[in-house]
Each structure stands twice: as structure tokens, then as C-alpha cells.
Amino acid sequence: MTNETISRLFTSLFFQKAVDFSLPDALLIMALSFLIGLFIATLYRATYQGVMYTMTYGVTLVAMTMVSAMILLVVTSDVVLTLGMVGALSIIRFRTSVKEPLDIMYMFWAVGAGIAIGAGMAGVAIVGSIAVGLAVLFLIRGRQNGVPYILVLTLENKAAEEAAMALVQKSVRRCRVKSKSVTKTGTELTIDIRLNKDNTDFMQDVSDLEGVISAVLVTYNGEYMT
Q: What is the average pLDDT value for the chain, to the nearest integer?
């Protein structure tokens, strides 16, 4: 194969397909999608409600924003490529389960921002991301000011129960008995509490009370304990 044939092949198969491709514009779009994705990932980390933050999910949010922008660049450039991209994406199946509903919102946010940037609506992506970010901060921070906790007490007798409840009521901002299980060997109390400035020092005092067998404190998000 001669050099002329190779040159003609490249010209027909690549350059003619990319006649509308602008490298500076593509680089700008990818850089902007990276920054927006980084903003989303940073906000996700700041508002994370779980026990252990997963760094890979933050990386996924950044990459998802960039990939969405890249797909829109391809889709808006050629109708044939659009149909091919739709066919390729239709066979993708996501097997990883998402336990926290808020994580799904972040996924849609990343995809939506990437689509807006790839479609040339960077202003919509920036303004929309700022608005969503402020709304999430407002709602999540308000929830963090009153993080619910569950206190599980195992007690020997009625006197221990009264002493423990008096100490808990004095040490926390709010408490309410959710369940009480009584057996011949003792009593188990499940108490919904709100702490004073995340102060858990009272737990040592509770466990030192006479008749208290065990005291366990866990966070509670309304669906499951962590």
C-alpha cells in the first residue's frame, strides 16, 4: 500500500467525518465538565451521611459528567452516530445497587450537567449546578443539625431504668422511648435521642450506673441503623 493510498484512506475515513470537529472547543467542554463534576463530587463528600465515604463514587461522579459531555458532542455532530450511540447505550446494564436514594440524585445531577455542557449550554450547567448545590446544602445541613441517634440500654431492674432515663434526659437535647422489652433477666430500652452538639460523653456515665448491663449508641437515618 503506497503512501498516497494511505493518505487518501485517512482523508476519507477520518478527516471528512471530523470536518466540524473543533479541538479547542472540545478541550474547553471537557475541562468545564471536569470542573462541574469536581464541584458535584466535593459537595457529595461534604454532605455524605453514611458511615464510610467511598472515594470511587466521587471519581465516578466526575467521570460521569465528562462522559455525558463527550457523548453529547458525538450525538450533536452526526445523525448516524446518534443512532449508533443510542443502540450501544441500550445494551448497558448497571448491576451495582444504590442503597442511599440521595446517591441517585447525584448521578442524575452529574449526567444532566454533562448533557448541558455537551449541548453547548454551559451557562445552564453552571447556574443549575449552583442552584442544586445550594438546595442540597440547605436541606442536608438542616438535617445534620438534628442527626437522630438510637440508644439501646440493657438494664437489670426498674431502679436502673429510672436512673438511666434521668441521666439521659439531662444529657441530651431530646429523647423518646421507641420500644421497651421486658424479660425475667432484665429490660431493654430503645430510645430515640438528639445530642447536644454531638456530645457523647454521657455514654460513659450511663454505662457506669449500677444495674446498667450495656449501652449502645448508633446513628439512625429513618430506614436503617449504621
A: 78
CA 126 to chain centre: 20
Q: Which helix (H) or strand (E) holds 182?
A: strand 174-183
Q: Which residues contact 128 (CB under 8 A, 6 or more apart)?
A: 112, 113, 116
**In this predicted structure, what is the pLDDT of residue 35?**
94
Does the model's pTM come out above 0.70?
no
pLDDT value of residue 31: 92
Residue 173 has what DSSP assignment? S
210 contacts 160 by C-beta, under 8 angstroms: yes
Residues ≥6 apart with Cβ < 8 Å to 28:
none
Show the cell assigned to 202. 454521657
CB count within 10 Å of CB 12 equals: 10
Query: Rounded CA gap, 219 and 217, in Å?
Result: 7
Q: Exposed, middle or buried: residue 26 (CB in 10 Å: 0-12, 13-18, 19+)?
A: middle
* Cα 56 to the center of its chain, rounded Å: 11
Angle, vertex CA 18, rays to CA 13 and CA 19, nearest 5? 110
State mean pLDDT over 34-50.
87
The grid coordinates of residue 89 equal 447505550
Q: Nine-digit cell at 73? A: 458532542
Q: How many helices (H) and strands (E) does the chain have?
A: 8, 4
- Local structure of 156: helix, strand or coil: coil
User: What domains, with CATH codes, occur in the chain?
Assistant: 3-144 (no CATH), 148-219 (3.30.70.60)
